[in-house]
Design brief:
Layout: E1 3-4, H1 7-27, E2 34-40, H2 44-59, E3 63-69, H3 75-87, E4 93-96, H4 106-112, H5 124-131, H6 142-155, E5 163-167, H7 174-183, E6 187-191, H8 198-202, E7 207-210, E8 228-231, E9 235-237, E10 248-250, H9 255-261, E11 264-265, H10 272-292
Parallel strand pairs: 1-11, 2-3, 2-4, 5-6, 5-7, 7-8, 8-11
Antiparallel strand pairs: 9-10
Bound molecules: guanine (GUN).
Length: 293
């Protein structure tokens, strides 16, 4: 049976480290790192994520600011808020929770965030730095960055020559994940809904990353024996209408089947999920260090 990769515990290590480094920064007389989280509308999943981000920021000793705006907030009002946060010296990181309501152009909002405060790593400048291997000064999107840390925990830092298959081509996870694996000298394939014979391709993977948002799509017989399986999916399966059953969270990987073949696998929940928030804290701390000079 596969090693279960304990993302919760690795995330706690990261948060502990961020907390210690924050205390060091403050002891030197520098300002504490500031994180502003902006949420528009009432998407329940987003509300849970945002509350958790703000709570962890406080736990790290950050100046933590949350702007909760009604769903009908205009694009202009949002752009004005971002301009204010860009100019606010107490704020080192700005995160606008996605998805945004349909009447707002999410691309415009993301590109309005100052690249040096873009702790999500979604601004073109940071995307471009990641794509060209300028990893020292890029903000890397939190979920792929956290996934990389988990992969390195299992396989060590040298991933050179390993076959990596990333299932999913989103800007938030699939593409940056592929770029990180490429920068680590893996042979990388990005698979998506039009890929032919995905099971056969998946079976070539030493590292298999699932980020498609389709519950339990990746089956046990798609997993190469000994592979490292990183499940980014978080899918809520509704409770059955009759009977005692509760709703439950599952990943994009059929866990019980895949765990029989994999060398190591992340569970859902408790795998990649906690890493996303931990890496957001790490990015905000890095931004504060850069601002403090
Ligand atoms: N919505 C889902 N994941 C993310 C994320 O990593 N950042 C932001 N801003 N919104 C998200």
């Amino acid at each position: 049976m596969a090693e279960v990769i304990d993302g919760k515990s690795v995330a706690e290590d990261v948060v502990r480290m961020v907390k210690a480094l924050t205390a060091e920064l403050v002891a030197k007389g520098k300002a504490k790192p500031g994180l502003a989280v902006v949420i528009v509308g009432e998407d329940p999943a987003s509300q849970v994520y945002v509350a958790s981000k703000s709570r962890t920021a406080k736990e790290c000793g950050f100046h933590s600011l949350q702007h909760t705006l009604p769903a009908e907030t205009s694009q202009e009002a949002l752009l004005k808020l971002i301009a204010e946060l860009n100019a606010d010296p107490e704020i080192n990181g700005i995160l606008v929770q996605l998805p945004l309501p349909a009447h707002v152009d999410a691309g415009k909002i993301i590109q309005a965030i100052a690249p040096q405060k873009d702790v999500d790593g979604f601004h073109f400048i940071n995307v471009g730095k990641l794509g060209t291997g300028e990893l020292d000064t890029a903000f890397v999107p939190c979920t792929p960055a956290g996934s990389m840390l988990l992969i390195e925990r299992v396989r060590g830092k040298d991933l050179s020559g390993l076959n990596a298959v990333v299932v999913g081509r989103s800007n938030i996870v699939g593409k940056p994940m592929a770029n990180l694996l490429l920068a680590a000298n893996c042979t990388v394939t990005i698979a998506h809904s039009r890929t032919k014979d995905l099971p056969a391709l998946a079976r070539t993977a030493d590292i298999l990353v699932a980020a498609v948002g389709r519950p339990e799509m990746i089956r046990g017989d798609w997993v190469r024996p000994g592979a490292t399986v990183i499940d980014v999916g978080i899918n809520r399966i509704p409770a059955p209408e009759k009977g005692e059953g509760k709703s439950r969270l599952v990943g994009d990987v059929a866990y019980a089947e895949a765990a029989k073949a994999a060398g190591a696998i992340t569970p859902v929940p408790g795998g990649v999920g906690p890493m996303t928030i931990a890496m957001l804290m790490a990015n905000t701390l890095a931004s504060a260090y850069l601002a403090a000079g």
